[in-house]
Amino acid sequence: MNLIQLKFPNNLTAVGVLEENKIINLTAQNKDIDTTYKLFMELIKNSITIEEFLEPKIKNCPVFEFNYEELISDPKKFDVNILPPITHPDPYRLFISGTGLTHTGSVKSRDMMHNDDDEKKDQTDSAKMFEMGLKGGKPSSGEIGVAPEWFYKGNGFNIKGHKDNILLPSFSLDGGEEPEVVGCYIIDEKRNPVRIGFSLGNEFSDHETEQINYLYLAHSKLRNCSVGPSINTSLNFSDVTVKCDITRDGSVIYSSGELKSGEEYMSHSLNNMEYHHFKYDIHRNPGDIHLHFFGTSQLSFSTRNFTELQMFSNSTTFFSGTDPRAVDFNTDGSKMFILEQSSNRIAEYKLSTPYDPDSKDSGVGISISKVTNQAYQGFGMSSDGKKMFVVKADHSGDNNNNVIEEYDLSIPFNITPLALLSLITIPSPE
Q1: Residue 252 burial (10 A CB sphere; 0-12, 13-18, 19+)
Q2: SS3 for 25?
Q3: Where are the alpha helices (DSSP H) in 359-420?
């Protein structure tokens, strides 16, 4: 079962029960249940399931005039705010936390983040923590396993709902998305944690700060996050697929692809993670809410180049007549590279201010070979700046192929000299 919380202009709130695309207004006939917190506290008090509780209560409840898809797409159209799926009347009593290095696919990117040595002679603490989970994160019934990594993200003031703005503090170095499953818990009167369901969340962290030093992990996590829009009370947390798309001006500029979560992909069991979070007395105060991020099999942010998504404060015309097709930067933003299609070259500009095109110099360029009827479509560089890849399309004659040219950069992020290593032809689908 899925539940949402809605807020209206008169500051009244309501609980909605989702039935496929319909939203049942539970509060309309049950005025005392105007938040999901009140609903779940009632369930816990009476020791009954949500299905048992709701069955007699929703029979005569009306359906909202808007359906779920319409509401998710444009809540302002209906003058409604979608709140996080569970909130506390006292935001200081809602705790947000998470575990990292719990998924079998996530350790590689985290290990690389904290180890600049290509040979990786020494195992990083990230790798050691992950190995501990592999060996002891799924104990037998009745046994206590090894504790996972744990971090604190803040309280109820840090949580954002659907369509809310996620804010970055002025001292942030980065803001990176992390789509994850969120466990939702309420502490009962006997100080026992009760799992009320799961939701979807964007953990949103400052990975540039974390990368400076692993001990900065705590600093990097104290940021806004989002949870919702709904809470699922019956999710099977064994195999969950999530995906992250970043859209700008109506176009998808980044897509993570499938990211896996759930116990099948984790080095720790759900019970083991819950035990180690709630073993502390301070985490078991009656009536408190805990929202816990569980991570995913692969860090979404590590699959993209942040510089490609860089938003500039203004839009200056730099390349009149060159038909620019792609832009990239070196790791510290001191160099900018432009693929200029009409002049058949890669242009390199030094930036006196990192990632600020306004601070460019006159630049240098190197021509790239062009075969008749071939058009260059884009390019990119490896993270270490030692390789460059250029994509071109061949529409000559009956050909309809895409070609990837691989170049060697003898000096990282220096396009002169440039040596062609290989050509890869990728036929277009028939």
Answers
A1: exposed
A2: strand
A3: none
Cβ(424)–Cβ(403) below 8 Å: yes
The structure tokens 């301070």 sit at 282
In sequence order, which residues have a C-beta less than 8 Å from that of residue 322 and are 6 or more positions away?
338, 340, 341, 342, 343, 347
Residue 9 burial class via C-beta count within 10 angstroms: exposed 0-12, middle 13-18, buried 19 and up: exposed
Pairwise CA distance, residues 265 & 271, whole Å = 15
d(CA 170, CA 318): 29
Residue 80 tokens, joined: 């409604």
Strand partners, 152: 97
Cα separation of 8 and 82, whole Å? 9
Residue 318 C-beta-side C-alpha neighbours within 13 Å: 22
Distances (CA, A) of 170 to 155, 165, 167, 173, 175: 20, 15, 9, 9, 11
Mean pLDDT by 10 residues, the chain (430 residues): 95 96 96 97 96 92 96 93 97 95 59 51 72 88 92 97 92 89 98 98 90 88 96 95 86 83 90 96 98 80 44 40 74 83 77 80 66 66 86 60 81 80 63
> Which contiguous run of DSSP H or E holds residue 108?
helix 107-113
Instruction: Give Cα 293 to chain centroid, integer Å.
Output: 11
Cis peptide before 91 (omega within 30 of 0): no
Which overall architecture, per CATH, does domain 91-304 show? Alpha-Beta Complex (3.90)
pTM over 0.90: no
